[in-house]
Amino acid sequence: MPPEAAAAAMVVSLLIVSTAAVLIFRGPLGRAISRRIEGAPAADSALAARVAELEHRLGEMEQEHSRVAELEERVDFAERMLARGRPEPERLERGTP
After folding, report:
1. Using one digit for the tens of pLDDT, what is the confidence trace for 1-18?
2. Around 18, how many Cα atoms within 13 Å sit in the side-chain half-sphere?
3. Using alpha carbons only, how large is the chain's radius of gyration in Å?
4. Mean pLDDT of all residues in the chain?
5. From its phi and psi, is residue 96 left (phi > 0), alpha (psi between -120 and 50) or beta?
6. Which CA distances in Å does 20 have to 14, 25, 26, 36, 56?
7. CA–CA gap between residue 46 and residue 52 (Å, rounded)
8. Could you give the count of Cα atoms lying within 13 Å of 1 in the half-sphere of its Cβ?
9. 40: left (phi over 0), alpha (psi -120 to 50) or beta
10. How many CA atoms lie within 13 A of 76 on its CB side?
11. Which of 11, 30, 62, 74 is the most buried (most CB within 10 A)?
C-alpha cells in the first residue's frame, strides 16, 4: 500500500471514529456519564426511600449496640460481685451494745 493511500485510510478512519464518538457521547450514554461526573443525585425516588430506610435502621442498630454494651458492663459487674463472695456477718453477743 502506497504511503498516500495509508494516510488517506487513516484520515478516513479517524473521521469515522470521531463522528461515532461524538454521536455516542451526545446521546443518553453521554448524559449519563456527565451526570455521574457531576455527582448529581439519583433521580429514582424508590432508591432514595430505600437509602433513607437503611439509614434509619442503621441508627436503630447503633442505639441497640450501645444498649447491649451497657448491659454487658452490668453483667460483668454482677459477675465480679458474685465471684468476690459475701463476707460472713459478725455475730453480736447478746447484751452488748
Report:
1. 788 888 888 888 999 999
2. 6
3. 38
4. 85
5. beta
6. 10, 9, 10, 21, 46
7. 10
8. 8
9. beta
10. 6
11. 30
Give the separation between CA 26 and CA 18, rounded to whole angstroms: 12
What type of residue is 92? L
> H-type helices in the chain, by residue range?
3-26, 28-38, 45-84
pLDDT lower than 70: segments of the chain: 40-43, 87-97
Distance CA 42, CA 28 (A): 15
pTM value is 0.42
**24 half-sphere exposure, CB direction, 13 A CA radius:** 7
